[in-house]
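Folding Task

Wanted — backbone structure
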Amino acid sequence: MQKDHKHIASREDELLKCLKCGTCLSVCPVYAETRYEPAAPRGRMALIEAVNKGELELSEVFRKKINVCLNCKSCVEACPSQVRADDLILCARADLVEAGKFTLLERLIFRFFLKRGRLLPPVARWATFAGRIANKILPAKNPLTLFLPFPDGWKERIYPRIAKKPLRKRVPEVVSVKNPRMRVGYFYGCGTNMVYPEVGEALIKVLTHNDIEVVIPKGQICCATSIYNSGDFKTGVKHAKRNLKVFKDAKVDCIVVNCASGGLTLKKEYKELLGVNFDIPTYDISEFLINVIDMKKDFKPPEKEIVITYHDPCHLNRGQGIKDEPRKILKQLPGVKFIEMAESDRCCGGGGSFNLKYYPISKGIMEYKLENMESIDPDFLVSGCPGCMMRFEETFLQGKMRQKVKHPIQLLADAYPDGKNQ
């Protein structure tokens, strides 16, 4: 039997806390779609416990069952025993990777492309272009589709448009202001850099308008959320150490992030999962504006009213405990009618690469979100995570819906003098 499960063994105390009560079943979005016990937190805890006891191997079957998890942390929030099922699942994935259960595609992406900031955008651009071409020219039942890395739902997919010019090439390394209140480092993350550079530009505009000097180090790389969430802890450690050095060298007072997963990674998971003490104070942009500096409110008169609703990213709300701050920003903006969506904190089904690997499940989870949005019929769906934004944007395009997707920082930037109209 396979006994090399050091990461699981290091969390044995968490396993012992699980009462197998099933409370987690009521909140797990994956279980709601599949009604399959091994795809629920309780089932996964039982499997991990069996590995820890030597009753089950770190097999391919085990890997497939453990991977069907969004890491949305709903089970952690609901658990009466406070079992960190999220960490246990990631530790199980780490043991699987170290046991050799790691695909060639994952190796190529995680250990080569994601650590090369300049190379990643053009590669991503060509990959999404190839995906769009395949969607157009290959029939749904063509045998060639069996060789696609993520075959489920491939014909439905609408791939994100990769920006012609990534954020790192659009902005200087330092954006200065007169009489700066603070010198702040900006960690932008892959989604903002490649897909939503306008979100990064909006963040810089907001910070400089609030007399903050912004440093955008060119040496920063992917935060590694997708890497260590897939179990490659060793590569994750390398990314953590490099990003720590880059921002230490920048001599910043703190770091701001506009990505829910990136913020969670820098603030907590580098240390708690990877053992790297990332000791630079780090804030989500909404948290920084509301709790640290008390942002300016010299808003221009609106030209028209817009209706918005807000989706709570799992890694911002449950991961970082940030729920009120984005709403406080949005509710202060002139010409913005904010309507709360039912179950705004329920996962959208994105989960990083989860929606690529398990598209039918992801689609079902998203349909639940759309039902909650229908009665509001907003102009904009607003969310503080580029990953969630991509998932909603794809869904809106597929359904030919009129709604657009925005980050809260974009609406704030628009409301300031010289901001664009919505």
